[in-house]
Amino acid sequence: MYGRFRTWGPGLLVLLPTIGLLGYFVYGLIGATLNTSLTAQHAARRGSYPYVGFENYANLFAEERFLNSLKNLGVLTVAFIVGTLIFGLLWALLLEKGVPGESIFRSVYLFPMAISMIASGVVWGWLMNPSTGDDARGINRLFHLLHLGFLENSWWSGTSRWTNMLAIALPAIWQLSGYIMALFLAGFRGIPPELREAARVDGASEFKLYRHVLFPQLSPIALSALIILGHMSLKLFDLIYAIAGPSQFRTEVPSVYMWNTLLRSDMAKAAAIAIVLLAVVAVLVIPYVAYTVRQESAER
Amino acid sequence: MTAVAEAPASELLKRKARRGAVIDGTTPTSRTVRFALLLLFLLFVLMPVYVVVITSFKTSSDTTAASQWSLPQTWTLEPWQKAWDVLQPYMIRSLSLAIPAAIISSMIGSMNGFVLARWRFPGANLAFAFILFGMFIPYQAVMLPLRNTFRELNVTQGVPTLLLAHCIYGIPICTLIFRNYYATIVPHELIESARVDGAGLVATYVRIILPISISGFVVTLIWQFTSVWNDFLFALFLTQQRNGPVTLGLAALAGGQKVDYAASMAGALITSLPTLLVYILLGRWFIGGLMAGALKG
User: Fold this and answer.
1) Number of residue pairs across A and B with CB atoms under 8 Å?
2) Which residue in chain B has the smallest CA separation from A242?
3) Nearest to A283 by CA among A227, A225, A219
4) CA A285 to CA A282: how far, in whole Å?
5) ipTM computed for the complex
């Protein structure tokens, strides 16, 4: 027994501090948030508050404002994922066979990823100025100059949920399409050339080659991309804060609503919003983590 | 993680499509169309950069709606000076935060990654899942009690609180990157023979693993530096204007009632310079980090 422990024991010892830290700062604090969400702590002052069960959650889901933020989040997530996947895949397809200056294209497409969401939000918020006509600024002014005045619009400050959230998704798509391109490009380059050659020798058309030979090889990457983009979108906060400001009902999503709730010192409600957010992320991520770990242990 | 993260991703990217020997399914027309489309998208991506750069050199009377897309009438460095005066203390705080945070989480991640890849123990899979999930949690779910914890631990608000937070929540991603890295480059036999020779974990790590870890470290250092530098949520929740990092400074510069557009744009450029510089100088590894760190938001 002692001999076997001597082989694997040190490994466990190395991991113990990490397990302790994450145990407290991730799982323990989630527990604390959950605990707060079940109390009547509607003030900043700490102390003992009575437990109210799921009352805070029931109130949230009965509230127009919270439902609005969830709907906004849904639209944002769909727009962001679809847009980013389309551009990312398109750019990867265009670059995949090699073009002159490929590294320049790649670097330019990818560079927005290096910039903070706050910086890009400051810039895009200014570009997506809602004024039109002679007073138009930003992109609307560009449309004006290019005689495309009919394209001028009020961006995120209109009346339709779809156009508002699409405008919020636009900078996020700008920032992350290059990343998805890099993922897919690496995927294409990882496919053995023999596969393509064999398909061509068998007389497959270009379309069929992609549809039946290459795309199926990329499905694990597409799955990862979906999870990455999905959980980024669910947590999105900085960009909305910088573009529309934190107190805009039009573009409010749960993470922003939580911030506003916190400003009013309603701890229990803020905690409940945070737990709902966590639950939505977990639904997406837990199956993925389980799948990854199982696959890893199968490979070993 | 996917196969992509396991393979040396930056190498895959550079691998050119094979040409010549077989028909690659392209014609001169399709090549031209492709190139034209790529140029068009290049313009779309660079469009914001153009306005930001020209605006940052404009005088305040020049930032009217009508002249927004034209070059400055007179070029001036004033907006840069103004933005720098505001942002300078924030920049120093961000640097003194991001550099140590990146180093500390990388070191912990390297040890952890080695154990999870090549010095496994019963239950290592469980530990891996435990750590992996920590990577995905929305910070909102821990933020409220985190403030109380730091208050109880008497951590000074500002760089120290953020340093602690980023080090802890950076461990999962660094561990994952190193785990995948070691699983790819370190052969099982190498570790086995070291064990047969009687080398313990620490000796094996220091003598065999550490010397071949450099590119792994470059990836995690860049990744952590970028995400700490760009973080806004922790900054907003855990610090204030007088002790916060550069994202808070930029939000203050570009927010408020009377916004100086030229200075805001110069500020956006100034705060992005360090990460852009890292990206330009070390882009090859940056891409590798993006691949490996695929799952961190």
Assistant:
1) 295
2) B251
3) A227
4) 5
5) 0.89
β-strand partners of A39:
A51
| Pairwise pLDDT comparison (A284 vs B16), residue with the higher score | A284
Which residues in chain B (198-227) have CB-CB distances under 8 A to chain A? 200-202, 226
Domains in chain B with CATH codes: 78-292 (1.10.3720.10)
The DSSP output letter for B155 is P
- Determine, for residues A182 and B287 on separate chains, whether the beta-carbon distance falls below 8 Å: yes
| Res A68: pLDDT | 95
Q: What is the DSSP letter of A39?
A: B
A147 φψ region: left (φ > 0), alpha (ψ -120 to 50), beta (else):
left
CB-based burial label for B236 (10 Å; 0-12, 13-18, 19+) = buried
Domains of chain A, earliest start first: 23-299 (1.10.3720.10)
Alpha helices in chain B (DSSP H): 3-6, 9-14, 28-55, 78-118, 124-136, 140-152, 159-185, 188-196, 201-204, 214-230, 233-238, 246-254, 261-281, 283-292
Q: Which residue of A has its CA nearest to B52?
A: A123
Q: Tell me which residue in B9, B140, B200 faces A10 most closely, judged by beta carbons.
A: B200
What is the per-residue pLDDT across A17-41, written as a single tens digit (0 to 9) for each?
Answer: 999 999 999 999 999 999 999 999 9
| Residue B1 with chain A: CB contacts under 8 Å | 224, 292
Sign of CA dihedral A172, A175, A178, A179: negative
Q: How many CA atoms lie within 13 A of A114 on its CB side?
A: 24
**Residue type (1 letter), A114:** A
Neighbours of B39 (CB within 10 A): 12
Say what the pTM is. Answer: 0.89
